[in-house]
Design a protein that fits this description.
It is built from four helices and four strands, in the order E-H-E-E-H-E-H-H. The protein is of the alpha/beta class and 100 residues long. It has one domain: 3-Layer(aba) Sandwich (Rossmann fold), CATH 3.40.50. The chain has a four-stranded parallel sheet, with helices on one face. The two termini are 25 Å apart.
């Protein structure tokens, strides 16, 4: 099965990817992450060289990129999220855009 995981450099997304790839060789994972504050490339170092893992730096709000990646996938698992509630009070738009 080919999965597109968004937000895979964050704590939850990266642990999901690592667990899945360790437990099942039949999964292929494309990890797309924008590299914002909650992202850390070190989170996926143990899987980054696996043949069934691919990292793509990009934002889920990029429609062209996401359409391209979705066509290569059987399912999408979304862990991408804007964080910092305090920032959402000042400007909610980035949070609405990434969540919707």
């Amino acid at each position: 099965m080919k999965l597109l995981v968004t937000g895979g450099l964050g704590f939850i997304g990266s642990n999901f990817i690592i667990k899945l790839l360790k437990e099942n060789e039949n999964f292929e994972i494309i990890n797309v992450d924008a590299g914002f504050a909650g992202s850390n490339t070190d989170n996926v170092t143990e899987v980054q060289n696996l043949k069934n893992y691919q990292f793509v730096q990009g934002n889920i709000t990029n429609k062209i990129l996401m359409e391209k990646l979705i066509t290569k996938s059987d399912a999408v698992i979304n862990f991408a999220a804007e964080t910092f509630v305090d920032k959402s009070i000042k400007d909610a738009n980035p949070f609405l855009v990434s969540s919707v």
